[in-house]
Amino acid sequence: MKSSKLNGKIYLHLLLLLLTLSFNACSPSHYRSKAEPPTHELFDALLQKYVDKSGQVDYANLQEDTLSLKAYLQVLENHPPDEVRWSKEEQMAYWINAYNAYTLLLICRHYPLKSIKDISPGWSFINSTWDIRFIQIGGHSYDLNEIEHNILRKKFGDARIHAAINCASVSCPKLARRAYKPEQLDEQLDASMHNFLTDTLRNKVRPELLQISSIFSWFSSDFKQPDLRSFIKKHTGIPVEEHARIEYLPYHWQLNDCR
Q: How many independent structural domains does the chain possess?
């Protein structure tokens, strides 16, 4: 009798152990540790196909090809960043591409429309388009605000990301026609910021006068490297004066639609 009870307890403990191991193997934390960085090739092809040289997007045709976009997003969902094993560049490239790709998906879901703000009118962080939790990555849900502010800005502290992420509006920095890649990330971010600052439709930089995007006002704390004028001088090559006057341009939220 005692032997039978002992065998039963051993069996129960073994069963619980197997269930625990099985649960851990399927848990998000275990899943994250096994994920390898994606190559972003699918997104690269989509950007070259549907984004023109001026950064405008062919949403009408992209909307007809959302299966390709969703295939890339499935790759992201199945390969969440591993903060231990992935390099900083691998993580940054992942989240920048994720922000841009999910923004495209959101527009396609609601297209045609005049502005991304029309999807969910409201104040930033209070029921706005950027607060819609439609993103699923590694068993967690995100909104665009969380990716931008809690991950990209807070974790990496690189002001150049403001020229890399695109909010689907005409005053945004142009949406790049290539996906961001870890091995090229520093050069790509430099190029994106340079292109944004020297784009006279969005910024007008002169040595004595800076007429610049409202992005530099909204996120002023991000551009103290050591100060905004020095930052702009570094990324444009223009000899910006130490006391150059700064004016912030109106921000236009019309959709960056090529039609």
A: 1
